[in-house]
Amino acid sequence: MSTISTQSFTANGITYNPPPKPVVVICMDGSADEYYNAAIARDRMPNLKKMSVQGYRGSVRGALPSFTNVNNTSIVTGVPPSVHGICGNFFYDETKDEEVMMNSSSYLRAETLLAAAARAGRRLAVVTAKEKLRDILSCKMKGIAISAEKASQATAATHGIDHAEVVVGHKTPPIYSADASLFVLRAGVAFLQKGLADFLYLSLTDYMQHTYAPEAEESLAFYEAIDTELGHLLATGAIIGATPDHGMNAKIKEDGTPNVLFVEAILEQQFGSGFRVICPITDPYVKHHGALGSYVVVHINDKNKIPEVQKWLSRQPGITEVYDRQTAATLLEQPADRIGDLVVLSGKDVVVGRRPQYHDLSALDGTLRSHGGRYEEMVSMILSHPLNQAYAVKAARDPRNFNIFDFVVNGTVAQ
Predict the structure, then answer these.
(1) Which residue, 178, 282, 345, 397, has fewest beta-carbon neighbours within 10 Å?
(2) Fold of 260-370
(3) Is 206 left (phi over 0), alpha (psi -120 to 50) or beta?
(4) CATH 3.60.20.10: does it fit domain 11-88+103-248+378-410?
(5) Is the pTM higher than 0.70?
(6) Is 37 exposed, middle or buried (0-12, 13-18, 19+ CB in 10 A)?
(7) pLDDT, tens digit, for every residue of 299-355?
């Protein structure tokens, strides 16, 4: 591999001083600590255990809502949604009176540190399992940017690489599979080994976590396969950081059926018409969660009703937090113009939705496991190298999952 640039770069007020080593940050989508712990306890993840012992493992707070687009964008910008503007997978554009997917870089209000790193001479590669993220993550970035979902369609002109399947050594996988995440890691290994990149962001998918509990053999086998690829990445000499975008919890009643509170339906039953509930978890991957998570926003036609509705919702079983727009913007770090009049979060075992006809639960593979609220906000940060003294102090405060590039690049003792 040719010389690795150590030129400093700045993005969103943070200056990065990269080491002369490959840098790899992995978004371990949906990997609540329970998944790691179950696999490590059964000796299925020796490489992750080695990183945790010889490097660093600690708890960090993610961005809310604890959804994929929100946290991936925070990770690659280093800032919360109030700054970068991505507040869900889906939102209601009040100015256009449209409900739209928020998967375009046109919604991004902050530069990515990946684009800044590329300008500073690093060879960039972004590999994401889901195509929906690729445009945001690679915004204005010079380098390789592919998704596992559409790897066969990658070209040098549009993705920075031709024949991606040949380079990686694996065919484009089904998106509803363990292989979708493993392809991402294998691509990272291939790009490092072949000298195609030295600064990588690898974002997995949480299909397996939505489908299987931590102790299930399917989960254990999946994490064992992840660990194998971690070993290959470690063998390249890279400094590696891994953090989830969110955790994962079962959202079921005692009898195993989905525990759903249809917010728009109960509001209309109590107050009449004039409500629009948006589920920001909504995306094309219906087998993951049926567009049901633990966070929704409510748009109310009659603004005079907001205090009364807020008070009533806060008393409903299963609902844990209800905030008006300005409070949510401040407390939850949200862009005020892209959320509703009220923001609603639910309990650990509860999801909130719109009304039954908007959610196809028959599309789910197995039980309902999901995320989005407070109970999926706390995740881990695992680094392959130990922290220096300054960042050990930062880690003892209130570190965020979207600080991970800062910790990896500026905070590790690269040996």
Answers:
(1) 397
(2) Gyrase A; domain 2 (3.30.1360)
(3) alpha
(4) no
(5) yes
(6) middle
(7) 999 999 999 999 999 999 999 999 999 999 999 999 999 999 999 999 999 999 999
